[in-house]
Amino acid sequence: MEAYQDGLGVAEWLTAKDPGNTNWQRDLSISHERIGTVLALQGKAEQALEPYRNGLLIRERLAETAPGNAQWQRDVGLSRSNVGDMLLAQGKADEALKLYEEGFAVAERLAEADPSNAQWQRDLWLFHLKFGDVHRAQGDLDGALASYRETAAIADRLTKADPSNSGWQRDLAISYAQISLVLEQQGENEQALDRYRQARAITARLKTQSPDDATLDKELFWFDERIAALEESPAGEADPGAGR
Q: I need a labelling partner for 235 at 20 to 30 A (CA). Which of 1, 184, 190, 201 fits?
C-alpha cells in the first residue's frame, strides 16, 4: 500500500505541474484504482469507495475529451464496475445496479462497434455476471439465472472461437458454477448437478495444463463438495457466497 500511496503522490505532482497532460491524468486514475483495489482485497469496501470514485471522475473527464478513444471509454466502464462492487459489498444493491448498467452501456457500445474484439465481448460477460450478483442479492433468482445464463453463452462463444484460451474456459466454468448455485436455491438440484459437473470438468482440464495453480485446487475441492452434497442429499444447500 505504501508504494501505491507514493505512486499516487508522484502522479498528483505531475498532474498539478502539467494539468493538460492526459497521460499523467490517466496515470493518476490508475494510482487511485490500485489503492482502491488493495483496500477492496482487505475487505474495506467503504474505504475503497473513495479512491475508486476519484479514479472514475478522472476517467470520465478523459473519456469526454476523446469519445473515439476506445481504451478510455473502456476505462470508464470498468471503473463504474469497481464502484458498483463496493456499493454491493455494503448492501446497496440498487445503487450498484445503476453503476453496472452505466458500465454495461459503455461495454455494449464498444462490442457493437467491434464485434470481433474478444476483450469487448469478455467485458459484456463481466457485466452480466455483475447483474446476476445484484439480482441474487435482491432475491430475484429468476433474474440472476437469466444473467448468469447470458454469461455462459458469451463464454461459450469465446471458448469455441479460441479453444486454447484458458481464461475463456475459466470464465465458462465460473458461469456454470453461478448457474448451479441459483438452480440449487430454486430446488432444481438435478440441473444444478449437471452444471457443477461441467464446471468441474473444465477446471480439471485447466489443472492438467497448470498443475501448480493452487487456486484451481481450491475450485476443484469446492466443486467436489457441491457435487457430493447433491449426490448424497437432493436437499443439500449451497453456500450462496461460494463458487467465486
A: 201
